[in-house]
Design a protein that fits this description.
Strand content: 25-35%
Largest sheet: 6 strands, mixed
Family: Belongs to the ABC transporter superfamily.
Radius of gyration: 25 Å
Bound molecules: adenosine-5'-triphosphate
Enzyme class: hydrolase
GO molecular function, one term: ATP hydrolysis activity
Protein name: Sulfate and thiosulfate import ATP-binding protein CysA
Strand order of the largest sheet: 6-7-8-3-9-10
EC number: 3.6.3.25
């Protein structure tokens, strides 16, 4: 990968202290993050968290209110979009309907000033090569209306790659497609990334997509960077309560930390190891981190709590039980193997194998 990066002249990207205001909205507040040369970094966050704005600022389509953009270590903050050497692909940035696939892909090369424009033969060869790369060989003469949604997105990626960008910027490139096509395309994109080695910033609101294909994931919330890390770091070691709640279907329970344990409703769960300061806190737990304890010995085990089973549902290969730990507490999902006997209305004891607690 590194070798590819060197060969391409792809560069690292650094956003430094980026803030952006739109009238009375603070879209970004002091965001600093980087993507190393050849790295694929996902920008992940809920709607309105500032992902697109950050991507547009890196592209040069938008000016930051404060902060700098560095491309390959050089300050590009004042460099106009066409001179930044970035290739981009936006969900709404559709193909030109009146141009063939070949002309769409070649567009960025053909609009170059005469001196920098490759010859027609070189452009043709480049289009052929890119269509092979995106696994759509031989469709040069077709029009966008003759392609499926997934094929159009692949042509759009070929168009973004045609100009040999130093950096590739993708904004929800598969957003409008159905789930199955999205899953196929994300693997395909990772594969292309491994072959071409472009430094890539990729905006998505889909955590599975981000965790599956990115080298690192940057999590934005209300214009702030909550955490940047590898998928494993983000999943296993969320740095903030927001990340803990956002990633991996965690339930969030309001609790009270006191004397090395946490009070959940009327009961106390001892916490081994990591201490949380006494006072109000939030506990996050995932469906897989709850286990039904044996009703005999488990009944008094200190790491278990009594729970009421409000519902049991099939969920793919396993089942999910909806648990209540108290009337005023939100429901908590527990993964249940199909062979475990459990029904709505049961009262059980539940062990917490892994929880994360953040001081409120
Ligand atoms: P989504 O996933 O919905 O696309 P996002 O994370 O990409 O969201 P942005 O589009 O970057 O979020 O928007 C961040 C904030 O800035 C939002 O509150 C949005 O309403 C605001 N905003 C974005 N662009 C503009 C604009 N041109 N004018 C005014 N406000 C804007």
């Amino acid at each position: 990968e590194r070798g590819n990066a060197d060969r391409l002249g792809t560069v690292d990207v650094r956003a430094e202290g980026i803030s952006k205001r739109f009238a009375d909205t603070a879209a970004l507040a002091d965001v600093t993050l980087n993507a190393r040369a050849g790295e694929l970094v996902a920008l992940l966050g809920p709607s309105g968290s500032g992902k697109t704005t950050l991507l547009r600022i890196v592209a040069g389509l938008e000016q930051a209110s404060a902060g700098r953009i560095l491309l390959g270590g050089e300050d590009a903050t004042q460099v106009p979009v066409q001179d930044r050497g970035v290739g981009f692909m936006f969900q709404s940035y559709a193909l030109f309907r009146h141009l063939t696939v070949a002309d769409n892909i070649a567009y960025g090369l053909k609009v170059r000033p005469r001196a920098a424009r490759p010859s027609a033969a070189i452009i043709r060869a480049r289009v052929t090569e890119l269509l092979e790369l995106v696994q759509l060989p031989g469709i040069e003469k077709r029009y966008p209306s003759q392609l499926s949604g997934g094929q159009r997105q692949r042509v759009a990626l070929a168009r973004a790659l045609a100009v040999d960008p130093k950096v590739l910027l993708l904004d929800e490139p598969f957003g409008a497609l159905d789930a199955k096509v999205r899953r196929d395309l994300r693997r395909w994109l990772r594969d292309i990334h491994e072959r071409t080695g472009h430094t890539t910033l990729f905006v998505t609101h889909d955590q599975d997509e981000a965790l599956e294909i990115a080298d690192r994931v940057a999590i934005l919330n209300q214009g702030r960077l909550e955490q940047i890390g590898t998928p494993d770091e983000i999943y296993e070691h969320p740095a903030t309560a927001f990340v803990a709640g956002f990633i991996g279907e965690s339930a969030r329970l309001p609790v009270e930390a006191a004397g090395g344990g946490v009070r959940i409703g009327a009961h106390t769960l001892p916490m081994n190891g990591r201490r949380v300061p006494d006072g109000p806190a939030a506990l996050f737990v995932r469906p897989r981190d709850l286990v039904m304890a044996r009703s005999d010995g488990g009944a008094t085990a200190p790491q278990t709590l009594p729970a009421h089973v409000a519902a049991v549902r099939r969920a793919g290969a396993t089942r999910r039980a909806e648990l209540r730990f108290g009337d005023s507490l939100p429901p908590v999902e527990m993964e249940v193997p199909v062979e475990v006997v459990l029904a709505k209305g049961d009262n059980i004891r539940v062990a917490f194998t892994h929880v994360r607690v953040f001081s409120a």
